[in-house]
Amino acid sequence: MVEEYIRLLIKNGEDGQGLPSQRDIAEKLEVSRTTVKSALLHLQNEGQITSQSRRGIQINKKKDVNLLSMSSLSDELAGENITIEHMDSRLVSVPKNLRDFFGDSLKNIAEIKRIRYRNGVPFSYEITNIDENKFSDITQVNLTNKSLYRVLKESYNTVPVYGFENISATLATDEIRMHLDVAEKTPLYIVESFNFAKSDQPVEHTVQYLSGENFKYHFMAKDILGYQKEANDDIV
After folding, report:
1. Domain coordinates in residue numbering, the chain
2. Is the pTM for the entire model greater than 0.90?
3. Of 25, 44, 106, 108, which has the highest C-beta tally within 10 A?
4. What is the pLDDT of residues 176-193, one digit of tens each?
């Protein structure tokens, strides 16, 4: 009963909004504070709420993504009201910073730009680079509301199996804030990923810009140096 009551408060509240204190909830529902604390701990473990010193209990509606998972962002967000807008695909010269990844012999790569929406609100602006020599006509594929990884699997029989990511932060520039519909200098995550197939061949490189106002990341691993994802991974 206590947990369902708090879930209702979360559903009707806004991200970052404070919840009543343990004492207030206990008095309203006529239960012990121990019962309330147990319900809050369960919801906190689910990521539904956060608890910080001097700030109390707050609603958390930011989407939580496992940074070390090799699943695509589409799979990470499965079950959410997600739509994808395919903005543009074209051939471009390989940037200097990607020559080691794709190899010196490659002159041009396909550049794919997309925006993801969650409940109609843009939250991710993505620029993907991929070798069109290996994935012929990829620039002709309409990726609106399609997972790139699924297209690679179904049309090219290729699946990224490992990779690495760099995560940093920046403030929204004019171009990016226009795509994400955020105010100037809004804090953004920059997630840059380099992904490979089983043969150690590079598959794709992606840079994602995500609003820090509605996204967060966590790491799930038993051994972060020799990482292998398991069903019972612990938080590190």
Report:
1. 2-59, 63-218
2. no
3. 25
4. 889 998 888 888 888 899
